[in-house]
Amino acid sequence: MNHKFIPANKEAEQALLGALLMNNQALDAIKVPLTSAHLSEKVHSEIFDAVQMLVHAGRLANPVTMKPLINETMVADLTIAKYLALG
Q1: 3-class SS at 29?
Q2: Helix, strand, or coil here: 40?
Q3: Are 81 and 46 in contact (CB under 8 A)?
Q4: Computed from CA positions of residues 63, 60, 18, 10, in that sequence, does the dihedral angle turn out positive or negative?
Q5: Which residues contact 50 (CB under 8 A, 6 or more apart)?
Q6: pTM for the whole thing?
Q7: Environment class of residue 44 by beta-carbon count within 10 Å: exposed (0-12), middle (13-18) or buried (19+)?
Q8: How far apart are CA 82 and CA 76, in angstroms?
Q9: Nearest by Cα to 74 from 49, 41, 48, 51
Q10: Given this model, what pLDDT does residue 83 score?
Q11: Could you say which DSSP state residue 68 is in?
């Protein structure tokens, strides 16, 4: 097998998502091809997909506008909405 191992870094993923939510235009600044499949946490993949969908549709991506787009998966003892609010 010749699979490349991509190390997971939960904190880096959280920082990326936080930056995108603080400044949606930062999505355009990502110069390497990045998809939700690159993120190790399922919840982070869902959040990234929602951000991309909203931004590419010309809408603001924030915890309020994302809520209808993401499953209410639990992260530890928190819903995704509460997880985002703590970020």
Answers
A1: helix
A2: coil
A3: no
A4: positive
A5: 61, 66, 69, 70
A6: 0.80
A7: buried
A8: 11
A9: 41
A10: 73
A11: G
What pLDDT was estimated at residue 57?
96
CATH annotation of 10-85: 1.10.860.10
Give yes or no for a contact between 46 and 70, defined as CB atoms under 8 angstroms apart. yes
Structure tokens given for 36:
């939700």
> What are the tokens at 12?
């880096």
pLDDT of residue 31: 82
- The pair of three-digit structure tokens given for residue 71, joined into one six-digit string: 């499953």
- Mean pLDDT by runs of 10 across the 87 residues of the chain is 69 91 92 88 90 96 86 70 70
